[in-house]
Amino acid sequence: MATRGHLLLFFILEPFCLLHITPSLAYSLKNCTILYQETRSADVSLDCANRNLETIPDDFPKNAASVQLNNNRLKKITRKDFSKMSQLRRLHLGFNQIDSVYDRSFSDLVFLKTLSMEHNNLNHLTRDMFYGLSNLTLLNLSSNFIQFIHCSAFRHMYRLQTLDLGNNDLQQIVEIQPVLQLPQIQTLKLRCNQFSSFETKELSLNFSSLREIDISGRNLERFSITTPIFPFLQMISLSGCEGNSTLKWDITDKTLLKRVVKLYIADAVLSFIETEKVLKSLYSLSHLRLQHLDEWIRKGLLTTVCKLPALKTLDLSNRLTNFILKFQPCSELTQLYLRESYISKLPKGSLQSLEQLQFLNLSTNRLTNVPFDVRHLSSLEILLVGNNLISELNCEDFLNTTRLMELYLNNNRITKLKRCVLQSLTDLKVLGLSNNLILTVGDTFKKTLFKLEVLDMSHNSIISLESGDFQGLQKLKYLNVTRNSIGKVDDGSFTDLVSLKTLDMRENKLTNLTSNVFQGLFNLTVLDLSHNFIQFMHDSAFRVLTSLETVNFYSNMLQYDHPGLIYYLERGILHNMKHLEYFKAENIYLSAPYSNTFQSNQKLRSLTFTKTDLSELQPELFLPVPNLESLDLSESQLKSLDFLVHANLPALRYLNLAGNELNVINKTVFQSLPSLTFLDLDKNPFTCECSNADFIQWVKSNTQTQVVNAHQYVCSFPVSRRGSLLLDFNFQPCLDDGGFLCFVSSSCLVVLTLLSSFVYHFLRWHLTYTFHLLLAFLYNSRKGRKRDPHQFDAFVSYNVRDEGWVYREMLPVLEGEQGWRLCLHHRDFQPGKPIIENITDAIYGSRKTICVISRSYLQSEWCSREIQMASFRLFDEQKDVLVLLFLENIPAHHLSPYYRMRKLVKKRTYLSWPQAAQHPGVFWQNVQRALQAGGALAENTDLLLGPAGR
Fold it and tell me: What positions does the domain TIR occupy (predicted)?
């Protein structure tokens, strides 16, 4: 048995003995942060960007699926940097100084999908640089100094679809031939290299699966496709570079580009004649983008453009100030982009012929009104006129655009929206009016926009919402009125918004919420009232919001001379929100929330209480929300985390405790959170002493919880270590010799276990009796010194099952007729005092002790202790202080297990209630004589009935 116990203890304690020898740094990352994912099954994403790293960190979790290493000072990639990271899917190495990648450095990344290495110093791609990347689909090598590509550099990339080689120093088109031979390549970007020409006759291949090509060059003079190697090509992009020469287009056989549907031309890479030549050769073209070609457009290029038989989308981002556009022949056009074109006015007739137009983008221009021709675009469905100088809308502006579904008027100077302006837009679903100067809603929406689902009126100057402002918007699902000056919301303002899901009222001047302020919002799921000045809210303000899932009270209740949010939380404003999942509150008042605050919110998943005094936070607050996954208690004056031990948060994964007053942290706090994966303890005044040794060890060794930026935590105490790093504190001396200590501890535990088992089985009653004799002796000594007078005549010791007899038979006689003062535990024990102390006080505070003995009495632990105390007093004082009264006939052999009772019965006579059943009067006279008796103790006193020595 000893051997088995010793081995068991050894296997239990062995891991702890070895912690200081082989620590795991899997989650206490020095230079990176694992990004928190709300979904448990989400991939591990690692953020190591902007850290001034010169080498790849060696403490990456091997199960990471995404790693951000951009914006550092990395210079090379070696074989060990990403070894055994087979689950990696995305790797970003852009904006570094990488000039060398060792062969097979990525060989373990067999499932990598995306590799970004833009803006580095690579100048050649070797044979085995990308060895092992058989599942890579996107490779970005733009903005390097690549001059040479080995012919076998891409041979393993069977699934590569997109390759960006833009802004490099490639000089010969044959360099990219291995890329064109890849079986799944679709997009190739070659802009701004050193090619002098792009001619397919230089390429020795039959065909390529390429679909999109982006090509340009500082010295590119010729673009020629004379062989059918691009049968699937759909898009060509030609853009200019610094010092670009004029390009010659050489494609005589139009059938070679019969599938090209998209063409992007930026800057004057082609002459006017060449541009027309290109357009005429692409008879399947449906999408055309012309950027920075102001001169060619002024020369009449649109005449050629509008003759393209398949053209549907035209994107003109050019400087067209004071230029009269004419789209007379473009009758088949469905989408037109005129954004960022410096247009101040579109004369009548400019767009009138575009009868099929469905999408028109006029944003970021200098328009002072909606162009006249818009009212004639009867097929228009989406109109963007944002970021202009429009100050007034006329009733005729949208008179005939009855099919319009989305209208964006944001970033203008509109002060008022007349009801007649929107009256004909019966199909409108989205209306953007943000960043204007609107003062009031008024009757703008009354009985007009019956199908409107999204309304954005943020960043205006609205001062109040009145009843009827949104009348008729029964289909509205999203309303945004943030960053206005709304100080009052009348009852009934939202009555008609029965379909509303999201109400965003951030950054206004709300000061109170009346009882019916949210009337009608039965389906509201998201409510944001953050950054207001709310001081009062009616208890019934939220009673109709039974569907709410997200509530944000961030930065409210700042007026401390009025009731804060805590006051209203205690009044039960969340009581009806049984679907609540996200609750956020900052700076909500001076004390912790009431423990029943979330009693009705059992679906709560995310809770934020920040910038609030939570120093008295109780664990009961979290008991009703066992499904809580995210908890933010940052900047809340917390001095201890003991409340988390009893908070019952088995699902908690994210915990933010930054900016509190935590000095010492017990690791058991986090052991009580079995699902915790993300912990932020930044900006706490840590103590670097042995009191934190367990916590430091836990941070370094645990493989589940990421302690964010733990290697940057700084010591605040003691003064001698102030400014040093917490994880640099040497805690080994605190643990002594771990191996020897574990051996000694395990051995002692085995011996103690065996000894405890022996004592429990053979000496249990002797030890219990000795313990109580000692307590009584100490108590008697103390009472003797104090010389306290007796408060009662007798203390009655009885079992609760005999309580009926005590009340029915004993008390009426002894207290009622004979006038004795009796002490009963239920009536005379002092509340709050330890029960053993109450018993001792009762026995020594009474002249005598009456033990009412029955079988239940003998089996009672507390009754046993009472008679032990009384018997000690009997022997100690040598006075007749004990009266034994048997309610039942109990044979002597039944008393054998009760050693003390059997010994007393052998030495003393006793009162027997069953024997006195025929003469109860005599029985109570004998009890009276026993209580009156005093003086020295005499064995076998004849006052009592019953045989001695039974």
Answer: 790-931
